[in-house]
Amino acid sequence: MIRLFDLIVVFALSGVLPWLSHGVMAQSKDAAEIVPEKFTTEISFYTGAERHKAPFVLTGGFLMLQVKVNGTSVWAIMDNGAASTAIDASFVEQNGIAVRQTLKPFLTNTGPVSRTLTEAIEIDLPGVLKATSSVSAIDLKSVSQLVGKPVILVLGREYFAQTAVIISFKQRMLDIGPASSVRLSGGGATPSVPQVTLEGDAPLVSLKVNDTPVRLQLDLGFSGDVSLAGGKWDDAIGKDTPSNRVGTMSVEGTIRPVVQTPNQSVIIGDQQLDNISVLQDTMLPASGDGLLGIGLLSRFDIVVINFYEAKMMLLGRTKKSGQ
């Protein structure tokens, strides 16, 4: 049993607990020019004295970790909203990682993105987990420019489908383990427990924006607070509310304008948060009314997300400037 975050949350691990999670080819029926063999992501967890929490930084609102790819330390972003893990194409070329085949471009809301499929690579989040898998190689230059650090890896959905994630924004530490292994333990803290449901594999969190009920897709790759589709934005914010025009960037570097309204109120679980920024965006996932991002989650000291069992716990409150 490994104790984390002042005895509040515990991962109970016994031995190496691997599982198989389908990779990119299983999630994209028309992905390949040549029909490839199926492959999986093999994940195992550190245990015993080798196990420890992973430090992270918040850069540009993104949660960034240092991981090792085939032994080389690189910056990675966590994004459970990404259909699969992606690696920077330039890094693949510069480090002699073999490409198995060319894949059909995947379509974003603003255009196609070219990609290839690599040979199996080793991904090591020291103290937390190791994984081996082929991954999709794309140009992540625009993501690096947006974040302000060289983003080499985007850890996608296969790292979250059967796991629980513990994020301590107060300590800037993170842990990932099997979904069945996380529980509250001591500390005397009473968590706020929002209602979470699964639609497909998308976790939808029920909350209120200015007293309007919404269901938002939890997205660790979204740096903002809340983003709402047009109709729900009209209900929760109102067309006459003063707003700002800001830009949002897609993975291929296209910048498009969206509407941002600051100083809104959100109720999540039994907690009311003020000074929340809400985006109006017409290009959102089909599931739910919008997105719930890192900006809002970072208002709490500790966030526990069990993706497999659709559970979420929020502990403590982190004050930000102006609050």
- What level of helicity do the residues show? under 10%
Please mark out the parts with pLDDT under 50 across 5 or more consecutive residues, or reply none. Answer: 1-38
Number of helices, counting only DSSP H or I runs of 4 residues or more: 5
The CATH homologous superfamily of the largest domain is termed: Acid Proteases
The CATH architecture of the largest domain is: Beta Barrel
Structural class: mainly beta
Regarding quaternary structure, what we see is single chain
CATH topology of the largest domain: Cathepsin D, subunit A, domain 1
Strand portion:
over 45%
Q: Number of DSSP strands?
A: 27
User: Given the C-alpha coordinates, what overall shape results?
Assistant: globular
Radius of gyration: 19 Å
Average pLDDT taken over every residue: 82
Distance between the termini: 37 Å
Largest sheet: 16 strands, mixed
For this structure, what is the CATH class of the largest domain?
Answer: Mainly Beta
